[in-house]
Write a structure and sequence with these properties.
Distance between the termini: 20 Å
Helix content: 55-70%
Strand content: under 5%
Largest sheet: none
Number of helices: 4
Structural class: mainly alpha
Oligomer: single chain
Order of helices and strands: HHHH
Number of domains: 1
Shape: flat
Length: 55
């Protein structure tokens, strides 16, 4: 998806914004800061997927 971001507008950052809160939803009180942390974590996973998910 990211490799086609020039066509679909789904950059790594946009994918992290969409999936971050669903992948790493924080426990307890949720606010914009805690959601931002989950987005950052997801962005790292997307950008470094080949290092994180080694075959």
């Amino acid at each position: 998806v990211v490799s086609k971001s020039d066509i679909n507008q789904m950059t790594a950052e946009n994918i992290a914004i969409v999936f971050g809160p669903n992948i790493a939803w924080p426990k307890g009180h949720v606010n914009l800061i805690t959601v931002e942390h989950s987005v950052r974590l997801t962005l790292i996973l997307v950008k470094h997927f080949d290092e994180v998910f080694v075959r």
